[in-house]
Specification:
By secondary structure, the protein is α+β, with helices and mostly antiparallel strands. The protein is built from 16 helices and nine strands. The strands form two sheets. Strands 2-3-7-5-6 form a five-stranded mixed sheet, with helices on both faces. Strands 4-1-8-9 form a four-stranded antiparallel sheet, sandwiched between helices. Helix 9 packs antiparallel against helix 10, helix 9 packs across helix 13 and helix 13 packs across helix 14. The radius of gyration is 22 Å and the shape is globular. The N and C termini lie far apart (46 Å). The model has no long low-confidence stretch (mean pLDDT 88).
Length: 389
C-alpha cells in the first residue's frame, strides 16, 4: 500500500532529524494519528542493551543483519519514547542454501573442506540462542531443480541441527531417530515448499529489473537515458517502485566502483549471463525477505532482529552499499527507508514526473511476473547467442 502525503512527510521529518531527542519528540507527537505505529530506527548511536546483536564473522562464515542492530532504537506509539523501558528482543538466523548444503554434507558423513571452522560456526549459532529459520532457502529452492527426496534430506539435516543440544561432528553424523514431533515439523517444512511457490513473484520482479538493467548496460545510449529507461520499465511495466533495487541498479549502470565487485558476474555478456542474473536476484531478494519478516514480527507485537547465515561475502557487500535506516509500519502501511535512494545517484525532471505519476495513481494491474521474466529472459538470451557466435 502506497504512503499518502501525511505518512511521507512524517517519515521524512524523522529521517531528516539528527538529534535523537527531537526524533523521539516528533515520533511521540505525530504518531498519535495512527491506531498502531512501530518503527526501528538505526544508526542513532550504540544502544547498550543491544551490544550482543552485532554482526559476526567466524572464519569466513557470517551472521549479519540488514543494518547495525546494536545501534537500533525502537519506537512504539504505546510508549513515551524518552522514558526508560525494556523490550524483549529476539534474534533469528535465516540459513542460506549454501549453509544448508554444508550441513547436509556433514550429516551424511561427506567431507567438507573446512569442516572444523563450519562446526565452530554451527556451535556459535546454537550457543548464542538464535532461532533457526530456513524460509529464504525454501523460496530459493523453488527456482532451482532440486529433487524432492534430496530436498527432504536438507530439511531433516536442518531439523536435526535444531534439535541437538550439543553440536559436535559425531552428534551431527549419528544416525538416530528424531522425536516424533520433530518429524512432523520436518514434514510441515516440506509441505510449506509448495505454499511458498505463491510468494515467488518477489523473485521474478527483482529478476526482471536486473535483466532490464543488464540489457541496458549493453546499449550504446548515454547513462542518463539508460537510467530513465530503467525507471520507466520499473514503474510502467512492472508497476512497482523498488527503491533499494533501483538504487543499486542505477549505480551498476553508472559503473560506480562500489558495486563492481557485487555485480562482477553480470558486468559483461557470457554464456552464463542468465544464470548469473538469477543468482544475483536471489542475493538481493535475501535482503528484501529479511525486511518483510521483521515487519511481520513487529505487527505481531514481536521485536525480532533477523540475520542471514552465509559464506557469501557478496551479500554483505550489497547491504553495505545502502544500509537500512528505518523499518516498521504505520497502521497497514509498511515502512522501509534506506540511507540513500536514486536521487543520490542521478535524478532529473523526467524521472520526477514518472515517479510522481506512479505515486499518485491507484493502479491495481494484475501482472504475471513469471511470464514477464520469461519474456525478458528471451531478450537476454538473444544477446548471449549473438555474442558467442
Amino acid at each position: 500500500m502506497k504512503l499518502n502525503k501525511i505518512d511521507s512527510d512524517f517519515i521524512q521529518e524523522l529521517c531528516n532529524e539528527t538529534n535523537p531527542y527531537e526524533i523521539c519528540n516528533k515520533f511521540d507527537s505525530k504518531s498519535q494519528i495512527y491506531q498502531n505505529a512501530k518503527l526501528i530506527y538505526f544508526n542513532l548511536g550504540t544502544n547498550p542493551q543491544l551490544e550482543s546483536f552485532k554482526n559476526v564473522n567466524i572464519n569466513g562464515y557470517s551472521i549479519f543483519g540488514v543494518s547495525d542492530y546494536e545501534k537500533s532504537y525502537i519506537f512504539d506509539k504505546k510508549y513515551y519514547s524518552i522514558s526508560p523501558k525494556h523490550f524483549n528482543v529476539g534474534k533469528t538466523i535465516n540459513l542460506d542454501l549454501n549453509i544448508l548444503t554444508y550441513l547436509k554434507m556433514i550429516v551424511e558423513d561427506k567431507k567438507l573442506e573446512d569442516q572444523d571452522n563450519f562446526i565452530e560456526y554451527l556451535k556459535y549459532i546454537k550457543e548464542s540462542s538464535f532461532n533457526l529459520n530456513m524460509s529464504i532457502s525454501l523460496l530459493e529452492r523453488i527456482s532451482k531443480p532440486i529433487n524432492k527426496n534430496i530436498w527432504d534430506k536438507y530439511i531433516l539435516s536442518f531439523v536435526k541441527y535444531e534439535t541437538l543440544d550439543e553440536i559436535t561432528e559425531n552428534n551431527l553424523k549419528n544416525d538416530y531417530l528424531l522425536p516424533e514431533d520433530k518429524y512432523r515439523w520436518a514434514k510441515e517444512i516440506s509441505d510449506a515448499s509448495i505454499y511458498m511457490e505463491k510468494q515467488i513473484d518477489q523473485f521474478y520482479v527483482v529478476a526482471c529489473l536486473i535483466s532490464k538493467a543488464f540489457i541496458l548496460k549493453q546499449d550504446k545510449s548515454d547513462n542518463k537515458t539508460k537510467l530513465l529507461k530503467l525507471l520507466d520499465y520499473s514503474l510502467n511495466n512492472l508497476n512497482i517502485y523498488l527503491e533499494f533495487e533501483l538504487y543499486i541498479m542505477f549505480m551498476y549502470l553508472m559503473e560506480c566502483t562500489s558495486v563492481q565487485r557485487t555485480f562482477s558476474k553480470i558486468q559483461n555478456i557470457t554464456k552464463n549471463s542468465l544464470e548469473n542474473i538469477r543468482n544475483t536476484s536471489w542475493d538481493i531478494l535475501h535482503i528484501r525477505l529479511i525486511e518483510t519478516q521483521m515487519i511481520s514480527d513487529l505487527r505481531n507485537d514481536l521485536i525480532v532482529f533477523h540475520y542471514i547465515g552465509t559464506k557469501d561475502i557478496g551479500l554483505q557487500n550489497i547491504i553495505n552499499i545502502n544500509p537500512l535506516k528505518l523499518i516498521g509500519f504505520l497502521d497497514s502501511k509498511s515502512i522501509v527507508v534506506r540511507e540513500r535512494n536514486i536521487r543520490n545517484v542521478f535524478f532529473n525532471g523526467q524521472m520526477d514526473s514518472l515517479l510522481y505519476k506512479h505515486l499518485k495513481e491507484e493502479n491495481n494491474k494484475d501482472i504475471n511476473y513469471k511470464c514477464m521474466f520469461e519474456e525478458i529472459s528471451g531478450e537476454v538470451q538473444k544477446l548471449v547467442d549473438a555474442h558467442i557466435k
